[in-house]
Design goal:
4-stranded mixed beta sheet; alpha/beta; binds copper (II) ion; 8 strands; Immunoglobulin-like; 1 helix
Length: about 130
Amino acid sequence: MHRKRSLGSAMLVLLVALIAAAGIAVACERMPPANSASAPPKVVTVAIRDFKFVPATVTVHGGDTVEWKNDDSVPHTATADGEAQEPAFDSGTIRTGAAWRYVAGKKGTYNYTCTFHPKMLGKLIVQ
Ligand SMILES: [Cu+2]
């Protein structure tokens, strides 16, 4: 009699252990799914060539990076218009062969120029 009862207890312990293991397995399957994030930020390049921004107009999303690369033989800048207030961005001097990067922020249309050559015009649209 005594031996049989002890076997029953052992079976009970084993059963409890199995249920606990099954519970852990179920919990693992319920891990949250990977985030389905929106498009990752990208880098858009504007070449500065023959006293022009190429392309003259670029459209990006907030968080994207715009890189101005000076392929010309003289220095240039990429400077947003800012008559009444500080320009949204201002590269300062970009020397020949150099590049300057700007991370787009607030939505809007930004006309920009080169402070050395005001006839150079570009437009950055942030959506
Ligand atoms: Cu210039």
